[in-house]
Amino acid sequence: MFTIKLATIQDVDDIVRLNKEAFGDRKELKWSWDRKYISKSIRFNRYVMKVDGVLVGAIHYFKEKNKLYLSSIALFKEYRGLGYGKELMKFLEKQARVMKKGKIEIESRAVNSEFYMKLGYKPDFFSGDIWSGYITYEKVLEI
């Protein structure tokens, strides 16, 4: 059984470790494992997923005028492929509906394309190549 709850200051070290594992040491993503940044952002739509009290993943989004923008989603390697990512995305869609946001927008590495497309997200824009490139996806929701 899993739970998804708003992150707390006690979750910061696990989130930093998770983001380092998920996003690597790419300079343009250094903010994603910066402890100070994570500590400040837990007040703004950063949620953690726990299984039996152990943090296994996290999701962070921003509210915009008519949509939610997914900033990051990550799972520790040993929890990938078990449906937890799908559950985090279902949680995000539920949040959007509650807030009356009719669309979710995501920018992700192209290698994650299959995951988002299986969930009904449509590619909108592509830049770069399949390994280092990014795709913007969107999904229109019924609210």
Polypeptide structure, described:
- The protein is built from four helices and seven strands; from the N terminus they run E-H-H-E-E-E-H-E-H-E-E.
- With 143 residues, the chain is of the alpha+beta class.
- It has a single domain, classed as Gcn5-related N-acetyltransferase (GNAT) (Aminopeptidase).
Can you lay out the helices and strands and say which pair or pack?
Blueprint: E1 2-6, H1 12-23, H2 35-41, E2 46-51, E3 54-63, E4 67-75, H3 84-98, E5 103-109, H4 113-118, E6 122-127, E7 134-140
Parallel strand pairs: 4-5
Antiparallel strand pairs: 1-2, 2-3, 3-4, 5-7, 6-7
CATH class: Alpha Beta
Helix content: 25-40%
Class per helix and strand makeup: alpha+beta
Number of helices: 4
**Main sheet overview:** 7 strands, mixed
